[in-house]
Design goal:
Thioredoxin_ResA/DsbE_sf, 42% helix, Glutaredoxin, 7 strands, alpha/beta, 166 residues, Thioredoxin_domain
Length: 166
Amino acid sequence: MKKIIPILIAFAICSCSNSSAQKTKFTKKALETTLLTPEGSQMAFKDIVKKAEGKTVVIEVWASWCGDCVKAMPKLKELQAANPDVSYVFISMDKAADKWKAGIEKHELKGDHYMANDQMKGVFAKAIDLDWIPRYIVLDKTGKIVLYRAIETDFDKINATLAALK
């Protein structure tokens, strides 16, 4: 019995650490989920990722109503200015397309824009383990995830990741 307890503890630690491990690719569910384009059509997330292949990509998941997202905008603009060769993809969790489009215009967001069809608790959000916005995901030129979970306080980590990919 004395030998079993340390083994069970070690197993529990390994199980917990694996659940928060850095992901290097999106789930099939995430890739198959469609997002709304500004033109009103639907586009599969896999096609959004494929469209950016060959470029380093920063994906920001945000919403026009999100105070932390708005507070992070100046840092995002600094990131874009320091990394003009990087592609930026914005995925909104807004509930209404008019609010989403107004937010893009108001904050002068430069990049490709999409909106989740079912917001924060929907299929896409669950498929990318969304628990907070703004959320940043960085992809390398092959489409591999190199930074899966960054938030508005992680711009140093995002910058370091982008610098390492140059």
